[in-house]
Amino acid sequence: MKTRIDLNNQTILITGAAGFIGAALTQRILREFSGCTVVGLDNMNDYYDPALKEYRCLQNKNAEMDGKCEYNFIRGSIADKELVDELFQKYNFDVVVNLAAQAGVRYSIDHPDVYIESNIVGFYNILEACRHSYDNGNSGVQHLIYASSSSVYGGNKKVPFSTDDPVDHPVSLYAATKKSNELLAHSYAKLYNIPSTGLRFFTVYGPAGRPDMFYFSATNRLIKGQDIQIFNYGNCKRDFTYIDDIVEGILRVMQGAPEKKIGEDGLPIPPYAIYNIGGGQPENLLDYVQTLQEELVRAGVLPENYDFDAHKKLVAMQPGDVPVTYADSTGLERDYGFTPKIGIQEGLRKFAEWYKDFYML
User: What DSSP character marks residue 43?
Assistant: First the structure.
């Protein structure tokens, strides 16, 4: 059972609001609901080009002008405990969506400190603020939603990946921090009765995405005439999930919190859940690259006579990577009536058209 939450007239915190998923979610809420106060928090770091984050911030403000909600953006880090506590005290959030995190499997190999700061310390600060939102008899946070990742499945051989599968052997620090988020959220749900839902995202892509993701970085390299590397000699499969499907899934989950219950021992039964959000149709990486090439030509990003074969290099698997990601999203379908459906041709077409408009016009 889920406790229904009407997002209209609610006060909502979205961390990572200038990020790929955070901005897209912010825009949907601002345009589709009324009477909300949405607070966006983002540290605007330079992990990738901050100009893209500034662009998303502008899109967020445009969405506010189109809709019937108030939007307040704060530049700051969830690792800043004083700032997080101040925001919770000022706004008394009803719903919290924690999407702020240091992303990227390969980056975590050489830059572990930023992952501990954001993904561990920062998430702890969010949990503590949610805990104290109930102080002095306040109604507090009705639902905490936070980003996990398909990376937690590590080298699991059983597919599709189910939330019932053990995830005790991460193969990257990034994955370990995301698994830690799930463990921390469970303990806080149990101890303080905080309704919490973790979402394991599967390879999110689309317009205004992250430039470090393969489809985006490959496009940047191809237009410069540079080679692209296809790992594991092309023997990889990914459950690519288009951004609109991810946002639809988050919105549905936001509106249904795990139900609070008291067990026979008189203590809370943790109001806690985990869901996969993935298309459930893993694509071979070489097929994905072929579709990307076709859509880049169609959109006019690359010329029709571009010699793709000359710029593709098949290379070995990278540390921290896994050969297959494949989501079992039956839990999301069962509890929220939603399964991602947008295929890679439609998704990459929208990306290629956006890329042409953003970088080339």
Answer: -
